[in-house]
Every structure is written in C-alpha cells, then in structure tokens.
Amino acid sequence: MPAAARPPTWRASPLVLAGGLLALAAVAGLGLASLAALLWQAPALSVGDLWREPWLAGILRFTLWQATLSTGLSVGLAIPVALALARRPRFPGRRLLLRAMELSLVIPTLIALFGLVAVHGRQGWAAPLWEWLTATRADYLYGLSGIVLAHVFYNLPLSARLMLQALETAPAAHWRLTAQLGLSRGAIWRTLEWPRLRALLPRLGALVFTLCFTSFAIVMTLGGGPRSTTLEVALYQALKFDHDLALAALLALTQLTLCLSLWLVALTRGGTPRLVPDAGSGLPGGRWWRRDALGLSRLHDALWLLGLTLLLVPPLAAVTLAGFYGLPELPGRGSLWPAALRSLAMALGAGGLSLLLALALLAGAEALRRRGSRLAALVMEGSGQLILVIPALVLGTGLFLLLRPSLGAGWHGYALVVLVNGFMALPFAMQVLRGAIPGLSAPEERLAEQFGIHGRARLRWLVWPRLRRPAALALAYAMTLSLGDFSVIALFGSPAAPTLPMLLFQQLGGYRWQGAAATALVLLLAVVLVFSLLDALSRRRPRYPFRP
C-alpha cells in the first residue's frame, strides 16, 4: 500500500484532535488567564522596584544564588554517582538503593523536611558528630546551607537516576569494542560517557534549576529568617498576608521571565530526560565490558555510593522510626484519618485530571503530525510544559480572581486546589506518556485494516497494551505529587479541615513531634502504597499480551 493511502492509527482522529484542542485551550487559556487576572487586579506595577528597592533586590539575588548553587551541586555530584552506579551493575543493596532514588521523585516535601530535621537538626542524629568535629552547635540546617542540603537531597538522586538511564542506553557492542581496544578510563569518558551526559545536561539542568528556583516549603521551613526569603515565599506573603496584588504580580512576572528564558535556551539543546523507572536497556554482566571498573576505581565508586546512601537513607529511616514511636497516639488523633481521606480524594481527582490532559495533548499532537502540521503539533505538545514555569501560587490566585464571583466557602477552595495540582503535575505526566503515544507501525496498521479492527477493538487490543503501564505510572506520579502538595493548600486550604501536609505543618509548627511523626509516617505510607499499587497493577500481564 502506498504511503499516501496508508490508514491513520486512530479512525476517530477528528475526535482526538478536538480533544487535544480542548486540552490546549484549557491549559494555555487558564494559565495565561490566571496571570492576566493577577495583572489586571494590580493597581500599579513598577518593574524598576526590582533594583531600586534593596529588599526586592536582595530577594532576587538570594533566589538566583541558592538555585544556582543547588543546581550546580545536585547535577555536578550526580555525575560521579551515576558513573559509579553504571560501573557497578551488581553489588548488595543496589536495587534497594535505586528504589530509594526513585522514591525521591515522589516523596512529599514535608516528609523529607521532617527526616532532615531528625537527622541534621540541633537535636538530630548528626548533631553530636558535628559538635565533636567543629566544636560548634549544629545550626547548619537553617539558612542557605539547609536550603541547599534539602535541594541536593531531592535533586541529586533524580539527576543521577536520569543520567544512569542515559548511560545504560549505550549498546553492548560499544563496550565490547572498548574492551577489545583496551581504552583507558579517560578515553571511555570522552568517547562513550560524556557524549550521552552532555546531551542530557541542558534540559536536566533547567529542570533542577526551576525546581530549586520555585521551591516553597523547603525555603519556608528551613530559611531561618528574612535573609533567606525567595521569590516564591515573598509571593506567598504578598498574597496571603499583605494582599498586595501589584507586588505579587511583579514577583510572578520576574519568576516567569527568568524560568521561561532558561527553558527557551534549554529546549534548543540536548535531549529530553525520561521519567520512566527502569527505562534503560541494561548492560551485560561480566568484567570484560568495563576495564575501568578494576583497581582503585572500586574504592572511588564505593565512596560515592556510600555518600549517596548516607544522604538518602538516614532521613527516610528517621521518618519511619519516629513514626513507629508515634503510633500509640494514632487512636487519639481524630483529625488524622479525615485528613488522609481528604488528601487521597483530592490526589485522585488531580491525578485523573492530569492524566486526561496529558493524553489529550499528546494524542492531539500526534494527530496533527499525521496531518502534516508539525509546528501546530509542537505548540500543542509544548503547552503542557508552560505550567512548569508558572508559579502554583500565581495559577491558583489568578483562578481565584477569575472565579471569585461564583466561589463560595468550603469545598470550592479544595476544588480549586485539585484543579491547580492537576495542572502542576501535567509536565511530569507528559514526560512519562510521551514515548507511548505514537501510533502503530505501517505493517501493524495494514494488518489491523485487513482484519477490520477499528474503534473500540483497536483501542482495546492494539493501543491499550502499550499505553497501560505508562498511564499507570503517570497517574502515580500525579497522585503522589498532589498528595505531598503544600504550597497551594497553604493558600486556599482551611486549617479546620486540613490535608495531611497541612496537618503535618501545623504539628511541626506547634512542636508536637510525636503527632507529627505519626502523620509523616501515614503520609509516607500513603505515597508508597499509591505508587506501588499502581505500579503492580500496570505490571499485571493482560490476557493476550502485546508483543511489538
């Protein structure tokens, strides 16, 4: 069959395209409309205040400095960690360590903060060692050093995991050739490892910088005072306490301009990191394929892997142990279980919304590509990344201003939180789903046409088997990100009816450590159970498995 007569993958391509256009209108329209509503309500906007006002200039400098420092340390230290993991495909605890690294993608911020305080706080596990080594009090967790430490805790495992997946895509034939040629460690780095990492660094660096630049709960908890205020925290203060829409609009535009400029540069360079665990093809076993894994490199790699373990495991272990000590208080915590049910219900709504938007945008973009409209497809697919650079507080406040005449109290605020969280998880869901959306190959399409497989049958037997696991992982990421959200719920939530993150923050602020430990353990278990359950359901083999 000639290429011009080749049937499309989806017979309902007009409906798919209509769904993509509707999702594009919802994402771009609400995102830009929320920003426009904030600007419209601002009585005056003075851009010059950014450098004329010492307070604003100091906030901007500190935000840029902490984000740059956090990004440099997270990405820079992730390189030797990823190389060590690639050189050591088999060692005791490797699989568990990789699972802990993947958990850092979805662990709620307040849980990580609770664990970091338990380990590195003034009364933490590491305090006696620090006082013995430096003869000073262990105050390093608060201020710039604490913010950077928390950002490294989050972003170093993420960066190393994505780098490891890029390294594992190297064909086994390349490693056989390096073994036959007897290439040195430096030659392997120049010819095999660095080219794969270099293609990943621009977008990975932009992603980590954006996450650190827009960090809210970490800075708010560990900032230690006005000197450690960032744009996101100042934006929250302007909206929540000062009701200064002009200042909030100025801070939002500044943050949007800086992050968007960085992403425009990053999108023109390098490849896209994948957020699918175990995406790499894996490397063959044996010493023959890694000559640089012998000798002193064993000690070098062991030190890096030990450092990664000491960074990740103690805070997670502290949360688990403290939570077990707080378990006797659970029966007396009447607000804990309603908060857990409220959080799960909101996470399910936000995750479902994010999954539907991601599927509609990617499927619509694929339909446009099949029609020959590549630029329109790029715009539709890229609209999902716009949310990444719009602050969640700006999105929520703008939507509140737009819907204010029809908004009431109670569930209206939580519905707004679900909407904002669904939009904020959209970029991560799209990263997981992107590789599963392209249609069938030409031979598969011809065979489906010959057997008359159309409509629901094609969706059930040909599309769904390849979409099943990425869709479950995308839903898991979106739900767990919503479960741990604090920035939006802090602005629109009710202290009388808190979610788990808000309840945890209230308990930490009131120094109710045992209750906070129990809440943190419940939140951590909810995240792990949601992710594990959806992952297990997606791994169940269908009745007639798909074989490409």
From TrEMBL:
Transmembrane segments: 65-85, 97-120, 140-158, 204-225, 245-265, 303-325, 345-365, 386-403, 409-429, 471-493, 513-537
Subcellular location field: Cell inner membrane; Cell membrane
Family, similarity comment: Belongs to the binding-protein-dependent transport system permease family.
Protein's UniProt name: Thiamine transport system permease protein ThiP
Domain ABC transmembrane type-1: 60-266, 340-534
Organism: Halomonas salifodinae
Sorted UniProt keywords: Cell inner membrane, Cell membrane, Membrane, Repeat, Transmembrane, Transmembrane helix, Transport
Annotated membrane topology: Multi-pass membrane protein
Major location (coarse): membrane
Assembly and oligomerization: The complex is composed of two ATP-binding proteins (ThiQ), two transmembrane proteins (ThiP) and a solute-binding protein (ThiB).
Gene: thiP
Pfam families in the cross-refs: BPD_transp_1
